[in-house]
Amino acid sequence: MPPLSRGLFAIAGAAAAGGAAALLLAPRFDPPPARTGLSARVELAFPGLSFRRPLFLTHAGDGTDRVFVLEQHGVVHVFPNDPNARGTRVYLDISRTTSRAHDEEGLLGIAFDPGYRENGLFYVHYSAADPRRSVFSRFRRSADDPDRADPASESVLLEVPDRWGNHNGGMLAFGPDGMLYFSLGDEGAAGDPDNQSQRLDNLFGKIHRVDVRGATTERPYRIPPDNPFAGRPGARPEIWAYGLRNAWRFSFDRETGDLWAGDVGQDREEEVDIVTRGGNYGWRAFEGSLVFDRRLADALRPGEAIPPVATYPRREGISITGGTVYRGRAQPLLRGRYLYGDYVSGFLWALEYDRAARRVARSDFLGDTDLSISSFGEDQAGEVLICSFDGKIRKILAEDRAAPDPPRSR
Ligand SMILES: [Ca+2]
Ligand SMILES: [Ca+2]
């Protein structure tokens, strides 16, 4: 799954599974020096439930307050949002058509239609083999059981052939505008060898936006006329933003509608972006705030590449898991903060962004969870839950760290 470069995923995956030998090989990380401000610990949200490589968690937006958890091998579970839940039901099982040939392949994302309560429609992104490709499909809820999807209802929206198993993106979500957004990574290998993220003639290294309302088998989606490159010769009209290496997870702020993404770095920096219409997020001219390809960077106009909102160096983590802006009620200290983490180091951060000034007002290192954080999800009420590869779902409990003693006067 996530978005790792340089084959480290195998090490981390084995470590997550408890392999002692692998743990010896796992990279070591240093917490950031600042230890004031907020801190947090994590706690099991559903102690009675365990999952096999849970990759994502969400709700159907239909008022039923159920939780849906994706397992990488191609299964979606559903259960009531109750800490005492003892079991789940299998909502969807496409494990036979989902490819797990590469660690980053599988059932990667799910998004419920804004009209799900009435129309029962939802969308998934999964990997398939022979030939290797990303598949975007629509399914429908079964007619007689709200806890089951109709496995025969699949309708393919889009298939994207892919030469490499890594960097497949994976997120899909509806925006506040009712459009379906989805990410694709730069296709893979390393360093985006064909510079696809900067080019507009392909779907890789981007976030896309399509209109699935009134879709038919013949026309599974339409291009919103206000897409930034709609009508431009040679450009894919689906593109919303580009220059993204592997935006494994993105989310919309429930209150502001802002689109936040975590973009996984290559060798030096992980980054957080606020993604805007037509924006170029720099890869592979830039990796985070740093020049990656001098020739490409020099060819860009000043300001053409939009810098990240935040970055962190490799000593703090090597594969960002983009999170979500907290709009729940249970953790007032986190209200309005963008929560994100690192899949390999397990570090967790909260960032406060000043939208008027367009800058980070405050950033807190919340702590080391010691988890392989694969995703942040939200329940119906906006409470944020963490999926990790130990199979468990956790909530975040924040507290104000005691301020350090002030320096003594001399
Ligand atoms: Ca790929
Ligand atoms: Ca960037």
Characterization of the model:
- There is one protein chain.
- The model is unreliable at 1-24 (pLDDT under 50).
- The protein is mostly beta strands.
- It has a single domain, classed as Neuraminidase (6 Propeller), CATH 2.120.10.
- It has helices at residues 8-16, 20-25, 116-119, 294-299; strands at residues 38-44, 54-58, 66-71, 75-80, 89-93, 107-112, 121-128, 133-141, 149-161, 172-174, 180-184, 206-210, 239-242, 249-252, 259-263, 269-275, 286-287, 290-291, 310-313, 320-325, 338-342, 347-354, 359-368, 373-378, 384-388, 393-400.
- It is built from four helices and 26 strands.
- The structure holds calcium ion (2 copies).
- One calcium ion binds next to loops.
Write the layout of secondary structure elements.
Blueprint: H1 8-16, H2 20-25, E1 38-44, E2 54-58, E3 66-71, E4 75-80, E5 89-93, E6 107-112, H3 116-119, E7 121-128, E8 133-141, E9 149-161, E10 172-174, E11 180-184, E12 206-210, E13 239-242, E14 249-252, E15 259-263, E16 269-275, E17 286-287, E18 290-291, H4 294-299, E19 310-313, E20 320-325, E21 338-342, E22 347-354, E23 359-368, E24 373-378, E25 384-388, E26 393-400
The structure holds calcium ion (CA) (2 copies).
